C-alpha cells in the first residue's frame, strides 16, 4: 500500500487534534511528498516528549509499510533538550516536518510502532 503524502497526513492530523480541542501547530513545513514527520509534545510542566518516524524494522506486518508509525525519541526531556535534538535532525534532513502539541496529558494520537 502506498504511503499517504506527508502534507496530507500532517493536515489531517492537525485537523484531528483541533477537533479534539488539543492545541497543535505546524512549526516546520517539509517535503510535501515524503518528508519525515516529528511531533513535539510540550506537557506545559517543564517537560516535553519527541516522537519521530519509526524504523521500518519495527513495523509489525509487511502491510504496515504504507502506514505512518512513530517511535519515542525523547520522553520527559526539557524543552531545550528537545529543541537541540530537532536542530540536529534538521541538519541531517532539511525536508522534515515538525508538529508541536501543547497538552498537559501528553496526548498525541500517533500510531506507535511496537518494539
TrEMBL record:
Name of the protein this chain belongs to: DUF1491 domain-containing protein
InterPro entries: DUF1491
Pfam families from the UniProt entry: DUF1491
Amino acid at each position: 500500500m502506498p504511503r499517504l503524502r506527508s502534507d496530507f497526513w500532517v493536515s489531517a492530523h492537525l485537523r484531528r487534534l483541533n477537533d479534539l480541542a488539543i492545541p497543535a501547530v505546524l512549526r516546520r513545513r517539509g517535503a510535501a511528498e515524503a518528508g519525515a514527520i516529528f511531533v513535539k509534545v510540550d506537557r506545559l510542566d517543564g517537560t516535553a516528549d519527541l516522537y519521530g518516524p519509526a524504523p521500518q524494522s519495527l513495523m509489525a506486518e509487511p502491510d504496515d509499510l504504507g502506514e505512518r508509525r512513530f517511535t519515542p525519541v525523547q520522553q520527559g526531556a526539557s524543552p531545550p533538550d528537545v529543541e537541540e535534538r530537532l536542530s540536529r535532525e534538521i541538519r541531517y534532513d532539511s525536508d522534515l516536518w515538525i508538529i508541536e502539541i501543547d497538552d498537559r496529558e501528553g496526548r498525541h494520537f500517533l500510531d506507535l510502532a511496537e518494539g
